[in-house]
Amino acid sequence: MIYCGIDWAERHHDIALIDGTGQLLAKRRIMDDAAGYQLLLDLLAEYGDSENDPIPIAIETSRGLLVAALRQGQRQVFSINPMAAARYRDRHGVSRKKSDPGDALVLANILRTDMPIHRPLPNDSDLARAIAVLARAQQDATWNRQQIANQLRSLLREYYPAALEAFAHWQNGLCRPEARALLKAAPTPARAARLTRTQITSALKRAGRQRGIEPEAERLRGIFRADFAHQPQLVEDALGQQMLALLRQLEAVCIAADELAEASEASFRQHPDAETLLSFPGLGPQTGARVLAEIGDDRNRFADARSLKAYAGSAPITRASGKKHHVGRRMIKNNRLHHAGYLWAFSSLTASPGANAHYRRRREIGDWHAQAQRHLFNRMLGQLFHCLKHKTLFDEHQAFPSSLVVAA
Questions:
Q1: DSSP 3-state assignment of 11?
Q2: 6 vs 96: CA distance, rounded Å
Q3: Which of 38, 90, 94, 290 is the most exposed place for a label (fewest CB within 10 A)?
Q4: Which residue from 186, 156, 170 is spatially nearest to 219, judged by alpha carbons?
C-alpha cells in the first residue's frame, strides 16, 4: 500500500510518498501550475496509481485547483485539519521545528496509521458543489450586509438621529432601497430638512416604491424637519462624507447578496433533492440551498442520522471522566449548517403544528429558547436524513404523530 502526503502552499507544493512500513519512496516539489499537476500525476502513476486502484492522498485543504485535479475519478482525498496535523507532527520530532517536506511526510504517515478514522472528501456532484459555492457566497454577503448596516447605524446615531427614526418601522431598515436613496439625497440633517415633498417622492419612486408614496413622503418630511440636536456644521459635513462612503459599500453588498440569492435559488431548484428539501416546513429556497450546500448529495458521506446530527452540532455530546459526567452542546461543528438550522427551526414553528407543539413541550420542561430550537433542529435533521435516503417527501402526520394529537 502506497500513501501520499502533500504540503500545500501558495506557489509550490511538497509531495512525499511512503509505503506500508513508513519507508520514504519519493519526494518532490512541484509548482502550482498545470505542469506541476501533471508531474504529480506522473509520479503517482510511477508508483502504481491507476483508475481502479488509486493512491490515497492527504492534504491540509479541501479547496483549490490542485484538489479539484486530484478528485477526478475514484481517488480518495483526505482533508486533514492543520491543527490535527500539528499534533501528529509532535510524534515525529520534539524540536517543534516545521518544514514543508517534513509536513508532507507527516501527512502521508497520518494515512498510513490512522486512515480509517479520517473522512475523505465527499463525492458530491458538480451541481451540488456549484450550489455550495453560491449558497456560501450568499450567506457571506448577507453577513457582510448586516455588519456594514450596523456600522452605518452606529454612525447615524452620532449625528443623524432623524434618519434612524424615519426608517425604524421599515423592515430591513437601512438595507431597504428607499432608505439608501434618501440617505444619498440627504447625507446630513441640514440637507434633509431642506428636502421638499416632491424630492422625497422622487427618491421613493427611484427606489422602486409603488404604493403609499404620498403619505409616506409627508411622514418623512415631518420627521426630517423635527427638532433634533446637531453637530457643528463642519463636523456634520465630514460625518456625511463618511456616511456616503459606508452607504456605497452597503449598496454594493446589497446588490451582491440579491444577485447571489437569485443564482443560488436557480441552481438549487435544478437539483433532484430540492423537492424533498422544500417539502419540509420552514425550508425555503435560500435556507434549503444552504442546507444542501453543507450536507451535499453523497449518500455515503454519513453512515446514519447520528453522524449528520453530530456534524451539524445539534446532537449533544457526553463527556465522562471518573465520577464526572457532563452532557452539553457541541462546540466543534459545521457553523454554516448550524446557523441555517436555527433559521429552519424558527421558521418551522409557524409552518408546522407538530414542530410548534414539540417546541412548546421542550419549553415546558425547562429548555431555554435556543435549547428548544436546537432540539427541534436535531429532530428535523433525522427526518431529513430518512427522507433523502428513501427519496420520500416530508409527512407531517408521520413526523409528529403524538404532537398533532396533543395540539388537536
A1: coil
A2: 20
A3: 94
A4: 170
Q: Which of 323, 397, 404 is nearest to 360 (CA)?
A: 404
DSSP assignments along 176-245, one per residue:
SHHHHHHHHH-SSHHHHHT--HHHHHHHHHHTT--SSHHHHHHHHHHHHTS------HHHHHHHHHHHHH
> Nearest CA to 122 among 311, 265, 260?
311
Please name which of 53, 68, 58 lies closest in space to residue 105, comparing C-alpha atoms: 58
Measured distance CA(317)–CA(301) in Å, rounded: 20
Q: Give 304's contacts (C-beta < 8 A, 6+ positions apart).
A: 385
pTM: 0.86
Q: How many CB atoms are closer than 10 A to CB 75?
A: 18
Which ranges of 296-400 would DSSP assign to H, the alpha helix?
Answer: 305-312, 335-351, 353-364, 369-390, 396-399
pLDDT along the chain (408 residues), means of 10: 90 91 90 89 89 90 87 87 85 74 90 90 92 95 94 94 89 89 93 92 90 90 90 93 95 95 95 95 94 93 91 87 82 91 94 92 92 93 94 90 59
Count of alpha carbons within 13 angstroms of residue 4, beta-carbon side = 25
Residue with cell 516545521: 98
- Strands ordered across the beta sheet of 3-8: 24-31, 12-18, 3-8, 57-59, 77-79
